[in-house]
Amino acid sequence: NSGVVCLLRPLLLDVVPSIRQTAALALGRLADYDVELAEAIVKAGILPQLICSLPQENRYYKKTAAFVLRAIAKHSPQLAQAIVQCGALEMLVICLEDFDPGVKEGAAWAFGYIARHNPELSQAVVDAGAVPLLVLCIQEPEIALKRIAASTLSDISKHSPELAQTVVDAGAIAHLAQMIPNPDAKLKRQVLSALSQIAKHSVDLAELVVEAEIFPVVLTCLKDSDEYVKKNGATLIREIAKHTPELSQLIVNSGGVAAVIDCIGSCRGTVRLPGIMTLGYVAAHSENLSMAVIVSKGIPPLCVCLLEEHEDHIKAAAAWALGQIGRHTTEHARHVAVANVLPTLLDIFVDTRSSEDLKTKASGFKALKNILQKCTYLPALEPLLHEAPPTIMKHIIGQFSKVLPHDSKARRLFVTTGGLKKVQEIQAEPGSLLQEYINTINNCYPEEIVR
Predict the structure, then answer these.
(1) Architecture of the 213-369 domain
(2) N or C: which end of the chain has fewer CB within 10 A?
(3) What is the mean pLDDT of residues 439-444?
(4) How confident is the model at residue 1 (pLDDT cuts 50, 70, 90)?
(5) 247-267 residue pLDDT tens
(6) What residues contact 436, with CB distance under 8 A and at least 6 apart?
(7) pLDDT, tens digit (0-9, with 9 covering 90-100), for 314-373
(8) According to the 3-state scheme, what is the secondary structure of the chain?
(9) SUPFAM superfamilies given for it (predicted)?
(10) Does residue 215 register a pLDDT over 80?
(11) What gap in Å lies between CA 166 and CA 71, rounded to an integer?
(12) Residue 57 has pLDDT above 90, yes or no
């Protein structure tokens, strides 16, 4: 309000280096504070002045100038675009080539804030020639520089397969993979994130990540004391598992499913989410892979997530994963049913509170339907007869109508537990599929028992 921005502008061209640098630092701190101040600095035409003499400046000024650019770019794609338009990317590339690690770090940070907004800005960073230099930065000895360079490569890779391919072509994967065992937790987070952002786009990119021999070393990250390392490690495994049965099989063979299950059991909240999704993706691919999840005792921790977690999207993911495990054969469905999952899924579906998140309701319904269409384990189905709404009821009755005609023991039990009585109370439309199922069940018994 006092017009300080306009007063600082001429100081960027002062003959005394320390005055130029301190003026830039003041502008950086103002820009960092909020979006309106950042916009005011751009409107004042300060950017061209800030970077005009950058190549000749000392390292302190370069670091500060990179800080100003980063502070402006972080707020919005429009402000980041303003930095691109004033020719700052070419100057930042010069900073990335500097001998001083602090200057490189500042430049890498600014590139990250520009690239993260959208594919167009990310492409501008690529076109400026930053990617090969960032790959050189992750090979430098300074941990802080490695971290920020890995983070920026992650921000560039996330938008599209083409941008991820650019990072791959610069040879990033091998160097990132080598850093997975690094003891520095913050570096590990960024490395795992970058590999995830590359692997998520396509089968080919995921295979390139796997070929860098990240298994079994990445599994150690699932036991890390740092929650974000755990989460990012599980996310990387998820992004690989989702693509093909072969990649999922590779994860199973390296002990990945057991490690993910342990990880889900040892943490809470959103850290669990990528692990839950991984089990769902692996199980979805084939009967054998689903059975691998069952044999590794994957069902109990997923049930725990359904009961313990309060956030709807985590419940929804757990319901979805259980549905993927149980949908293949009667054997798969039986394993899920024996774990007493069905009543919990039914509760989620009929619970009025979970109606706020339609996704949770839908996941509960879909998972139930997937499992019920294969489940012939009647002791698990019978309790549902007394609570299920009509949309679910027809699937349950359908399973009884398949099993009862061929199983005399089940027929006797069905009478003594009150199941047959419940069936007589159901109002079905004449000629409907539900009515057919009820008729099939009634035909298994003498008329006086039905009456």
Answers:
(1) Alpha Horseshoe (1.25)
(2) N
(3) 90
(4) confident
(5) 999 999 999 999 999 999 999
(6) 401
(7) 988 999 999 999 999 999 999 999 998 888 888 877 775 655 565 566 667 788 888 988
(8) CCCHHHHHHHHCCCCCHHHHHHHHHHHHHHHHHCHHHHHHHHHCCHHHHHHHCHHHCCHHHHHHHHHHHHHHHCCCHHHHHHHHHCCHHHHHHHHHCCCCHHHHHHHHHHHHHHHCCCHHHHHHHHHCCHHHHHHHHCCCCCHHHHHHHHHHHHHHHCCCHHHHHHHHHCCHHHHHHHCCCCCCHHHHHHHHHHHHHHHCCCHHHHHHHHHCCCCCHHHHHHHCCCHHHHHHHHHHHHHHHCCCHHHHHHHHHCCHHHHHHHHHHHCCHHHHHHHHHHHHHHHHHCHHHHHHHHHCCCHHHHHHHHHHCCCHHHHHHHHHHHHHHHCCCHHHHHHHHHCCHHHHHHHHHHCCHHHCCHHHHHHHHHHHHHHHCCCCCHHHHHHHHHCCCHHHHHHHHHHHHHHHHHCHHHHHHHHHCCHHHHHHHCCCCCCCHHHHHHHHHHCCCCHHHHC
(9) ARM repeat (SSF48371)
(10) yes
(11) 26
(12) no
Residue of 375, 377, 300, 376 lying closest to 344 (CA atoms): 300
Pair 46, 82: CB distance under 8 Å: no
Structure tokens at 407: 């199983």
Tell me whether residue 342 is exposed, middle or buried, using C-beta atoms within 10 angstroms of its C-beta: 0 to 12, 13 to 18, 19 or more: buried
Q: Where are the domains of the chain?
A: 213-369, 376-450
Take residue 118 and report the two structure tokens written for it. Answer: 């959208």
Residue partners of 270: CB distance under 8 A and separation at least 6: 231, 311, 314
Asked which of 7-11, 232-236, 332-336, 366-370 is least confident by mean pLDDT, the reply is 366-370
Peptide bond between residue 216 and the one before it cis (omega within 30 degrees of 0): yes
Q: How many CB atoms are closer than 10 A to CB 355? A: 11
Cα dihedral 99, 102, 107, 108 sign? positive
* Percentage above 70 pLDDT, the chain: 97
> What six digits make up the tokens of 345?
């899924």
pLDDT (tens digit per residue) in 109-161: 999 999 999 999 999 999 999 999 999 999 999 999 999 999 999 999 999 99
What would the mean pLDDT of 382-406 be, rounded to a whole number? 85
Alpha carbon distance 367, 363 (integer Å): 6
